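Lab manual, section 2.4: Encoding a predicted structure.

Procedure: take the sequence of the chain (267 residues), apply the prediction step described in section 2.3, and record the output as structure tokens. A sample record is shown.
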Amino acid sequence: MNANAITKYTWISYTAIRSNLAYLGEVLSRTTFMAVILYTFMRLWTVVYSGTGTERLGGLTLQQMIWYVMLTESMVLSSVRVSSEIDEDVRTGRIAVQLLRPLSFSMSRLAQVIGERTVRFAVNIFIGSVVATLLVGPISISFAGIAMLLLVLPLAFVLDFLGYFGIGLCAFWLESTNGLVLIYSRFTMLLGGMLLPMEVFPQGLQSIAKWLPFAGIIYGPARVFVSPDKAMLLHIMATQAIGLICFGATVWLVQRIAIARIQSNGG
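Recorded output:
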């Protein structure tokens, strides 16, 4: 990738950021749901911690647990489901025109999604931090935790993009991709540790889930932020690397077959 292409992709991200900032009120309105979720889980986990008579569950205190949920909710609510856009492009035939552009179709979409998600996540984590502080108080935020979050967060965004992008390309063969989107999003929420950190999963499920790409999308960034650990960071990065290889190879293959199908049909 040459410098000119990088500049163009950067401009696409910048344009997406400005577009989302112009409609910041809409982004803020989505955080209301997060406040409800955090309050609900604060009440739930307070009962759980009191009932077990322990200060830590899964290695996290009550404060850390609520902040963990805040981070995972920020990740989920900031997700850009690009699959619906790809689905529409395929059905309307616009994808044939977009493939003629000098820039990579997938990279252009990734740049746009990164820009949109950056704004959404920043707003979510700001509002979520305020709500979490009001509910359970602040946690000790270290430089290491922030650095680890910033290290794994971009990879988490790319992983999630590849998942939804690949689903969108399935519109070449499926009448609707909504079913796949529902399955993928539920796997991300449940096996990605959105509601519960993986340390409280049953041991058998935990050992499997920690190596799935979903852990690198949701669980990883939140876990290393609230409880920084170098060994955990290395594990999350390894999980993300495996996920990027698997998701990336799948998307590349599906896109290649889809483009060949367009060309064979004269599109």
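Check your result against the sample. The radius of gyration is 20 Å.
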